[in-house]
Amino acid sequence: MKKKNLIIFGTRPEAIKMAPLVKAFLKNETFETKVCVTAQHREMLDQVLDFFEISPDYDLNLMKPGQNLYGLTAAIITGLQPVLEEFKPDYVYVHGDTTTTMGSSIAGFYSGAKICHVEAGLRTFNKLAPFPEEINRTITGHIADYHFAPTQTSFDNLRNEGIPKDNILITGNTVIDALFESVSRVDTIEDHEITQLKNELDFTKRIVLVTGHRRENHGQGFINICEALKKIGEVVENVQIVYPVHLNPKVQKPVYDILGEQKSIKLIAPLAYPAFVWLMNKCELVITDSGGVQEEAPSLGKPVLVMRDTTERPEAVDAGTVILVGTDKAKIVNETIDLMGNPERYGKMSKLHNPYGDGKACQRIVKFIENLD
Ligand code: UD1
Ligand code: UDP
To answer: Which end of the chain, N or C, is less surrounded by CB atoms within 10 Å?
Structure first.
């Protein structure tokens, strides 16, 4: 009898980081592997499924405009019941720290499957930042049977919470697997978004790439971020700020209200993963509050300013590949001006080693599961 895997994800970053694992398991004939998407995100998830050519076996199609945590959590748990009862997986794989992650690990546990947590052990030890992700990943960590920790720090966090060491494997982050697979493809594929970027952006300018969406930055945080970007657009000579704006209405409104008319700022729709990787490779600097982007950009030699006060990714700060600037307007502006005006500092930062892995995380996960009785 083949071991049965159910890989569950729902948002854009989970899809990017689980795509190489889906491929690795589908290639391995000792497993029967199925994919279930909650579709906590819709358009932004579908962009990833298209690029990696993944057709989910189950699609709960849950996203509602302006959804809230209560309804979404409940819908994920109840929506998964028939899927789990029909397929009866031995192993359920969840990723990271979203509502999909937490809800799916609870539902998978109820079904009797073993829970495998990919990107396990990240912690800030502050339950309000990131909100609600710190609690999502902590709950998932205590439900999970097997923990795939990206780094030694995340391994240590799990050990300190009493997780047995034989149930944890340090793998590197699967985001690097996805990036390495994609970066070689993006220069050769025909992609209408990349063509559009080539036509619409001015590559004689200094490109700063921005993303942002974190819930704890909604409200005043986003107002500060936008004010800072506006200032950077005014004072840094020859700059072009490119910002693919997350579809959350709580992000769209302040960003378009404050930055919609700025000459040096180009607001665009979220890019599909290949175009985003292509642009990341072409830019000079990344400013973001995203988890995934700060893990990827250093592999392309791009310094990252992280608009958060606290981080579950201290390895990047220690390695010097990212700088935490919070959502303080002056700090964002000053660090940007300093880094863009100081070629020596910039050059040093862009050459530092990325601590998030070697692109073989998925290989290690598959082997670990293969070796279980
Ligand atoms: C979610 C995750 C967050 C993750 C982020 C990645 C939770 C609580 N939050 O936050 O951990 O870092 O995704 O981007 O799990 N929307 C669309 N189309 C889409 C996606 C979103 O219209 O394809 C809009 C909808 O109005 C939706 C809203 O954005 O209701 C919020 O989506 P949601 O997944 O609840 O929150 P995110 O802020 O995206
Ligand atoms: N990304 C993308 N298109 C965009 C912006 C980001 O494909 O317009 C990718 C990016 O390469 C990274 C992931 O989305 O892999 C990060 O997602 P997000 O910032 O939404 O979530 P987080 O990582 O913070 O959970």
So the answer is: C
